[in-house]
Amino acid sequence: MTLPTWRRHSRLSGADPAADVKDELRFHLEAKIDDLVRQGWNPEAARSEAERRFGDVRAIEEIGQTMGGKMERRRRFSEYWSDTVHDARYALRTLRRDRGFTAVALLILALAVAANISVFSVVNTLLLRPLPFPDSQRLVWIAPPPQTCGFSCSTYSADAYDAFRSLSRSYADVTGYEAFTVENNYSFSQNGDSQPATAIEVIYNFFQVLGVRPELGRTFAPEEALQNAHPVVLLADPYWRRQFAADPSIVGKEITLNGKPTTVIGVLPASFDFGAVFSPGKRVDLIVPLSLDFERNWGNIVTMLGRLKPDATLGQAQAEAYLVVPHLCWSNKYPQSCGQYAGKDTMQLRTLKEYVSGHLHRSLIVLWAAVGVILLIACVNLSNLLLARAAARSKEFAIRGALGASRIRIVGQLLVESLVLSCGGSVLGLGLAFGLLRWLAHQGSLALPLLGAVRIDGQALVWTVCIAVLAAFLFGLVPGLRMAAGNLQEALKDSGPGAGLGRRHERIRAVLVASEVALACVLLVGAGLLLRSFMKVLDIDLGFQPDRAASIRVEYDDSAPDAAASSAKRGAIFRQMIERVGALPGVEAAGIADFLPLGPNRAWGSPVPKGKVYDKSVSLPSPLVYVVTPGFFRAMGMRIRGRDFTWDDVSTSPRVALINVSAARFYWPGEDAVGKALTTGSNSPDLNVIGVVDDVHADNVEHSIGWQIYYPVTQEGPDDAQLVVRSQLPPASLAASVLQALRELNPKQTAAEFRPIRTIVDRANSPRRFFMLLVAVFAGLGLLLAALGIYGVISYSVTRQTQEIGIRMALGASTGRVQRDVVLSTLRLAGIGLAFGTIASLVSARVIAALLFSTSPWDAATYGSMIVVLILVALVSGYLPARRASRIDPMTALRNP
Amino acid sequence: MDTAKLEFFRGTLDVLILKALVWGPLHGYAVTNFIRRQSEDALLVEEGTLYPALWRLESKGLVDAEWGLSENNRKAKFYRLTSVGRRRLRQEVRTWEAYAAAVAKVLGATRPPLPEEIG
């Protein structure tokens, strides 16, 4: 590329468009005057004539100045641009020459950027972006504050819902869904084969309140929610695609659900995922209207959410809720149940967003901070690598400086080099993050909300660009300034390693490495604390044995004219099932319960010990109710004292129940509960406690345990039936024979999933596992980078000291001595980093304290192992250069300075 | 005819300037002289149109400008054709000739229009 002439010119005199225009026009005028004088005019007359002919000089000048200014600006820009392009080309050339360096730098950057983009995308989806509903900030979750009695204490009855909806003025509308849905609660039949499907029952105005429009068809009409209306269903997009091959004419067709013809009235858009918002980690296939009238007798059944009116605030709605709650009745049939929702567990309003992802806020922030630290470590590392390179290139820069390149130009060139590197790394990182997020979005079993919506979007791209530029400046600036500040003459005279510049570089590099180690410390401690918490969580005695057991949802028909007959019929069916399945080879125990621990649950009011009267002020929690068969406790691996239910506990025999240890301790403190009696109401017979069950983590793994009560299926009606099978064999190998046995008894049994109990526990633990794993991966990455940094610095210093070491060896220093020195200097470096890192960790551990489970943020074991790990890593990274140092041949070293 | 000023067609001045520079760099005054002399005083370029036209050509990259010394040792701004300018000139000349020939053919008509052409 040749230098255009104007550039040479403007370089010398400095561009000044206004002066140029004036000069040019003056020349024109004078040339004219000369001509006129030559034609015989006298000079005075010639000047005025020339000026007259010229016209308005000022106007032309003005045009010239604006045009010239514009040209000048363009010129300057194109000059910068061509400089930058030139620098970028040069950078590409040098980077291509230094393949090893480039590969390492790109890899480091790609990993750091990938981690940052992935976490940003997750944070963006879960925390920053509004929920995927129009005006989602006006959606409010309406529930009592969290308690230990499970779903029953976080829901409202149909009557309470109706009253709340009509009494509240703050909402455009209030809706809700049935909270007690178990997976695979429906069966879809096609061509004689039954498939399980998960359906959720919602109040008919659910989609209007959320603002979700169906992709095809329409949403529910009020009359479709009436009892005995013709059943209708909305299909979730994935189910429509999977089960109906995305049939565009599905709307209006009849399908068979639970043996009944049901009209498909619409298909929901792919962007609406019920599970992702309301029940993370679970899939929902079908949406059906909830019949409030049918539910009226069932107590607390719906969760409530509302859409605020445009002029209402959350605070107003909350104030109003306090006034409305005392008027809500659990059931309008029982006037004494009115006002039951007021008092200790009054209503708590949160935005829907807060409900969905509020509890993840801290974890995500920690994760974000962790990737920030990773980026910092990567930058420090690259800074270090660039410094090493810069040292080798100091002569090149000195020569360029001597030839007239300004310092800014040299710093600029190094920054362009960093930018080229960081752009390359970011592109690679973006690719990595893309793959990672695609994988993550398909982790259906991970109980994190909105995960399916995680993707790289425009904001993530902007974030990437920010990170790339920031990183480039972070890691490019120190070496750049360092190089530009170097003494030219010293660098030019410098005959190679061992000179002052090198030594100064080494000091900066030592500081950089120490800070890298410190940062890695913080990450390691964070990961260590989270890992220990996770181990503690795994060690929790859940009250049941999740391993070697699996469950399958079974179907039965216990319809009978009255409750007693129904119980007897049900008992017979279940007994047959359990005996049949229990006889299968390898099966140790089998039993049925309506709900399993860590799944849906409910409570049925508060029984009291017979003869005891509690003061009004004593809060009587409602125990979670489980209706089970004999053998269930053994199948689940739950420990009981007293006796299990038998098939002889029937509706005509005395009522029996088992309660958990916590409840027993409250009802009869210091006494044995077995053999005592409870009353559940003035006109029900006494309930005899025949045994006490060890506390089960029924609601969640990590929090405190509430009360539980177990009834026999032959005396109380279960809501559902989960058959639990305990066996020595892996569940998968039993699945077929269990299903076959069930089908022999009930040909309509759907091919439901035979699910290991362990997966239920894993799903409950999945958010913790997920965060722990991520932080651990980041810590590993940080450790690797720190090790690389240590290795780089020590290795470089060994190279620089080759001569010195050679002399010392020639003077009699032993191999061991040389090795020891190098390793010691490594340890000194790591030690300084460790000291600062430990302090930083102690401070930052407070931030994650809230995420820990029975682990102190100052857990000595974690800190101890972090220190051991870092010292080991430092030793390994220092040992390689040490070994090289000890193999230096004194003669060669001295001959080749 | 000699005193009548011919109005320049739009864009014509640009071509004339480019043509003026074909033999080598010239300053603005020389360009006016060239056009005047070559057109035998039929075309008088006013300064108010010449300079903006020159600058426009410069900003388009059709000409380059450089300061130099004039015949009588004055500092003057010389314009030089760039290769882009040269290419443009060739193209404009071709267009102009085609246009002029076409106009001449029409104006040189000796027969009245045919009846079907009127209809």
Explain what you see:
The complex is a heterodimer of chains A (897) and B (119). Chain A has four domains: 5-86, no CATH class; 145-346, no CATH class; 360-539 and 763-895, no CATH class; 556-749, no CATH class. In chain A, strands 4, 5, 6, 7, 8, 9, 10 and 11 form an eight-stranded mixed beta sheet that branches. In chain A, strands 16, 17, 18, 19, 20, 21 and 22 form a seven-stranded mixed beta sheet that branches. In chain A, helix 13 packs parallel to helix 23 and helix 18 (500-539) packs antiparallel against helix 26. In chain A, a hairpin with a 2-residue loop joins strand 4 and strand 5. The two termini of chain A are 41 Å apart. In chain A, 54% of the residues lie in helices and 13% in strands. Chain B has a single domain (12-108), classed as Winged helix-like DNA-binding domain superfamily/Winged helix DNA-binding domain (Arc Repressor Mutant, subunit A, Orthogonal Bundle), CATH 1.10.10.10. Helix content of chain B is 53%, strand content 13%. Chain B is built from five helices and three strands, in the order H-E-H-H-E-E-H-H. The radius of gyration of chain B is 18 Å and the shape is elongated. Chains A and B meet through helix 1, helix 2 and helix 4 of A and helix 3, strand 2 and strand 3 of B.
In short:
By secondary structure, chain A is an alpha+beta fold.
Question: Keyphrases for this structure?
Answer:
heterodimer, A: 897 residues, alpha+beta, eight-stranded mixed sheet, seven-stranded mixed sheet, 27 helices, 24 strands, globular, disordered N terminus, B: 119 residues, Arc Repressor Mutant, subunit A, three-stranded antiparallel sheet, 53% helix, 13% strand, elongated
